[in-house]
Amino acid sequence: MRLYHYAKLLPMLVALLGTSAMAAEPPTAGTISIDAPDLYRDAASEALANKGFTPLDGAGHAAWTMVLTTHVSDVGTGSARVAPTQAEAIKGGLGRGVGSGIRIPVPSAKSRFVALQRTELTMTLRRRGNDKPIWRGTAVTVRPDDPQGRTAADLCNALLRAYPAQPDAIIGVP
């Protein structure tokens, strides 16, 4: 009889112990430091601030640390359309003559070759002083070289779009 009662209690005990052993939920606010190259630090700071975090300089003062790891590799070339020039007004006439003109660029089918880069960004969130990751996500894109940092902002925003949900796979960014 007692064995029967223990057998009924066993699933409840397993369920109770299983819930206490789950990993910590990612935070949705608080102070955070960002360990990344400058271009990515700025993009991540803005994306994390939009999620309710307060970015701080220096890892010793923030409750959370977000580590950004980037990997950039050349993957070949692609073709891109040549951007048309801007319209402009042109003075006309000779000497003291009167006149004017306007130049309107017409789009062309011209294209040029550009180098393509594969950029992969991995974000790992940890509690300060702890090496165990609480949240991790990876995003990847293939684009022409981007000195303005649009790629960094797009990758950070894509990774944090569904935060605090844990991404199941690598997120592709067009």
CATH topology title of the domain at 24-77 and 112-172:
Double Stranded RNA Binding Domain
- The class by helix and strand makeup works out as alpha/beta
| Number of E strands | 8
Biggest beta sheet summary: 6 strands, mixed
Number of helices: 3
CATH architectural grouping of the domain at 24-77 and 112-172: 2-Layer Sandwich
- State Rg: 27 Å
Distance between the termini: 64 Å
Estimate the strand proportion: 35-45%
Kindly report the spatial arrangement of strands forming the biggest sheet. Answer: 2-1-3-6-7-8
Encode the helix/strand succession as letters: HEHEEEEEEHE
CATH class of the domain at 24-77 and 112-172: Alpha Beta
Low-confidence stretches: 1-22
Query: Quick check: average pLDDT?
Result: 80
Shape: elongated
Q: In percent, how helical is the residue content? A: 10-25%
